[in-house]
Amino acid sequence: MLLHLLALYATFQGCYSDADQLTAAKIPTHCNPSSTILFRAIGNIYPDGNHYVKVELGDPPLQYLFDFDTESHFTWIQCDAPCQNCLPIILFNLSMITND
What we know:
This protein is mainly beta. It has one domain (4-96). The protein is 4% helix and 25% strand. The chain has 1 helix and 5 strands. The chain has one helix spanning 9-12, and strands spanning 4-7, 37-40, 42-44, 50-57, 62-67. The strands form 2 sheets. It has a 3-stranded antiparallel beta sheet with strand order 3-4-5, with no helix packed on it. A two-stranded antiparallel sheet has the order 1-2. Strand 4 (50-57) and strand 5 form a beta hairpin. The chain starts with a strand and ends in a 33-residue tail after the last strand. Keywords: Signal. Residues 51-100 form the Peptidase A1 domain. Belongs to the peptidase A1 family. Pfam families: TAXi_N.
């Protein structure tokens, strides 16, 4: 099953490329705030329980794995720079879920 993710549309709408043909050389460097790019989704619901896309950001590029949520159109990454007054990273804790 091949899923495509419409991601980062707020940043890249209009910079469209077919997910099977997407290469760094084909992504325009002049994308505007109303641009879109399609990414190939990787993963499966069973047994992994997630879908994600591989994205390279920065110069030099660093690879990030973005889990995506179909109920939201926002995404973010934690910067690698020394951080002052940054938000703490809160990881999901499955043991906190109750079955009331």
